[in-house]
Amino acid sequence: MEEMIIRSFRDSADLKLRFAEENAAGIISVVEVIIDAIKKGNKIILFGNGGSAADAQHIAAEFVNRFLIDRGPLPALALTTDTSIITSIGNDMDFSHVFSRQIEALGKKGDVAFGISTSGNSLNVIKAFQVAIEMGMKTVGMTGNDGGKVGSIVSHLLNVVSKSVPRIQEVHITTGHIICEMVDSLLFKKR
To answer: Which residue, 73, 100, 117, 151, has fewest beta-carbon neighbours within 10 Å?
Structure first.
């Protein structure tokens, strides 16, 4: 069991380092897009399914409340938290519209649509990005595998080249934390 534990930690650490080396410039671009949106009075709208839904909520909470420094709230929301909205859209329309319908209602030109999908092929995430693009929103995708369909439509892609869903998710939340830390540092000039 100890070998399995050490192997899992090593695999996670190795993947994170490889991702950082391949995506540092992309992370910086995402941070710049988020800062620009906030400075212009726009917001970050996050979404995903399952563990990616939890990551969307987690990242939104770091922006709205605080991350490492005491500062005012930053405008972010996760589209995964209102069960009445999600279930009514899923029931009356189709589950593939649970995020796109909310983007239509809550998004505006200049906002950042930030979708998370370990496969890059979640239909509801793809539809949300399609609507966001039509509305003039900035698009950021965090994916895994080869980036899937999401990778071909977003403006800013952070893709974890792996087929292991748990390892992809571990890189995603680490990346989310780094983005939050950089946004705080650059907007508020604190470390």
So the answer is: 73
- Model-level pTM? 0.96
d(CA 187, CA 108): 22
Domain range for 79 is 2-188
The number of domains in the chain is: 1
Q: Can you name the residues that pair with 115 across neighbouring β-strands?
A: 47, 141
Averages of pLDDT over each 10 residues, the chain, 191 residues: 96 98 98 98 98 98 95 97 97 97 98 98 98 98 98 98 97 98 91 53
CATH number of domain containing 106: 3.40.50.10490
**What is the rounded radius of gyration, in angstroms, for the C-alpha atoms of the chain?**
16
Q: In this structure, are strands 76-78 and 156-160 parallel, antiparallel, or unpaired?
A: unpaired
How many CB atoms within 10 Å of residue 103? Answer: 25
Q: How far apart are CA 161 and CA 166, in angstroms?
A: 13
CA torsion angle 184 186 112 20 (round to 10): -90
- Report the C-alpha gap between 123 and 146 in whole angstroms: 16
